[in-house]
Amino acid sequence: MTTQTFPPVAQHHHKVFESISVPNRLLLGPGPSNSHPDVLKALALPPIGHLDPFYIDLMGEVQELLRYAWQTDNRLTLPMSGTGSAAMEATIANTVEPGDKILVAIKGYFGHRLVDMADRYRAEVSTIEKEWGKAFSIEEIESALIKYRPSILAMVHAETSTGVCQPLEGIGDLCRKYDCLFLLDTVTSLGGVPLFLDAWGIDLAYSCSQKGLSCPPGLGPFTISPRAEKKLNSRLGKVPNWYLDVSLLNKYWGSDRVYHHTAPVNMNFGIREALRLLSEEGLENAWNRHQLNARRLWEGFEKLGLDLYVKKEIRLPTLTTVQIPKGVDGKAFTLHLLKNHGIEIGGGLGVLAGKVWRIGLMGYNSTSENVDNILNLFETELPRFR
Amino acid sequence: MTTQTFPPVAQHHHKVFESISVPNRLLLGPGPSNSHPDVLKALALPPIGHLDPFYIDLMGEVQELLRYAWQTDNRLTLPMSGTGSAAMEATIANTVEPGDKILVAIKGYFGHRLVDMADRYRAEVSTIEKEWGKAFSIEEIESALIKYRPSILAMVHAETSTGVCQPLEGIGDLCRKYDCLFLLDTVTSLGGVPLFLDAWGIDLAYSCSQKGLSCPPGLGPFTISPRAEKKLNSRLGKVPNWYLDVSLLNKYWGSDRVYHHTAPVNMNFGIREALRLLSEEGLENAWNRHQLNARRLWEGFEKLGLDLYVKKEIRLPTLTTVQIPKGVDGKAFTLHLLKNHGIEIGGGLGVLAGKVWRIGLMGYNSTSENVDNILNLFETELPRFR
Prior knowledge:
Two copies of one chain form a homodimer.
Chain A: E1 26-27, H1 37-43, H2 53-70, E2 76-80, H3 84-95, E3 101-106, H4 109-120, E4 124-129, H5 138-148, E5 152-156, E6 158-159, E7 164-165, H6 171-177, E8 181-185, E9 204-206, E10 220-224, H7 226-233, H8 246-253, H9 265-281, H10 283-303, E11 319-323, H11 330-341, E12 343-344, E13 346-347, E14 356-360, H12 368-381
Parallel strand pairs in A: 1-12, 3-4, 3-5, 5-8, 8-9
Antiparallel strand pairs in A: 2-10, 6-7, 9-10, 11-14, 13-14
Helix pairs in contact in A: 1-9, 2-9, 10-12
């Protein structure tokens, strides 16, 4: 019982709002995607303690299911307690020491974000750039590794800003040949696109919960290979980011279970259920489903005379960029779909602003019904926007 | 359509788990606390886009309700997309430049965490320490400000490790007299303990979602005063943390609504509802409820002959530390309550490990029924552990 006297309570921010109600949306943009109903049910379970024996078991399940989804044996595989961008920053924060050379292969918006982050951790950043909508060849990667001799090569697997899927075979071998770590953004590929972290020699990867995993946004899957752990363990100073410091997180997610921060337990209920559903379906089935539904979408757009921005060989099944025809107000059509049909699709980012629509078919939303639904709206309603 | 050939899918992490089911717990530890049922319902609403007009409106509501809860007019008041520890780090990351002097007044575990973080942002850290269970006097604070002349004074309002509520009146004035910013941890006070950020001259504060707000863990309320914004805006370099950079976040949460990261939309549904409920109850009523139920708990323990660790004048209503009587295996009793009664209480942290239990009555859980329930178990079952 305190004996302090207090000032009067100010009431000018004291607003009384109605109980929350949320419009029903079909999210066919770059993400978030809709969540599986079982995942939403899991989110609403009553929270338990972050050191509760039940929760400790659940953490182990999440880790094991993430290893399966990513096809990795990495011990340190866990969801960061933030969104995909936090997990992205975790890969940089833990492995970059001031002055380290990092090479970022940029082919869209998210490559630039990696540069910005690496710069903040005082890396010496080099970049190679590819026109938006294209992928790097293995020869281009090798030349750059020879030229810059980085200690980390960072790139994006599935570029959400362009719809390009970067072929990865052979790059991991090059990273070993030139003695550098391979850091990969798998935000728009995990769960939806074939991905083999260990077989492809990927040392650091991150993703998100709200795309291929059919969970709401809020967690950032993260993994680090034993090879990258060595670099972490030989750091001269502490990781310059407490919240994302994997050496501390390892004491909680590893066998010691030492308190680091209070885990977002309900979000972890959700991702556990999301990963369980992916495991139940099986990775190959999930990848095939994404591929088949994407093909159905692409063929439909071609029939409607709409051009796809990315050539077929490197086209991402989870996110398709459609060119906005000349004379069409792309933004007006996007708003029309949202307001009158409750469907969200995305516009272009950066250099593609105003030039493309971005249509996502991810996780729970990758269904033939959704494809037919959106194609039908493009067929019947787009002509009014020309 | 890719023409790559893929390795076989490894099945050794391919586990098939049952659908999730979670034990029912009454969380009377240091946090998380139980969530209000309406908040859990909000979490399970279908996600919408982070740039959806509906979501943009909801962000404004969350900000306004947070201003009320904290009693501040700060423009930059928002929930960080991480737990309370992320928001803690955000206060440091945004305002500390290398070489800045920061003074941390430590009276428990979380003061040490502030030191660790400030150190990682290359501050020149000074500390004053108080025995765990005690609070600083205004004279002690002033002497330290004179001695160290810091640019930031950081302290914890409600020390979750000890159960001490630090009296704050006058400290903000001292911070102006000695030209430093006042940074305050309000993790275990927001929503449960009288707190007047503006009237008390607090420049930087952070909290969590899972205690006084009755929401699951996963968001970290954060606020920064115009005075502290000036320091942020005069930085020589970028904030060395991309995810928590308030100058970037301001473009999303401010009027521009420029994409920064994909917001954890469902967690924000939850905190919106949690803050709405607090606003509906009214701050004064919520504070009184916490005070009354805490008193009921304290009186009950005294009747049972148990000693409270903190003297009444600075005792926190949200978290009570009870001394473990000599000869009692405190951990065994804690485990007994969890396993046989589904009730979580906390053990001691740091120097108080094995010496105290920590009992939280926070937000939704601060009820007379919960008090009577836990007192009854102490009365009837503790004797078996002596």
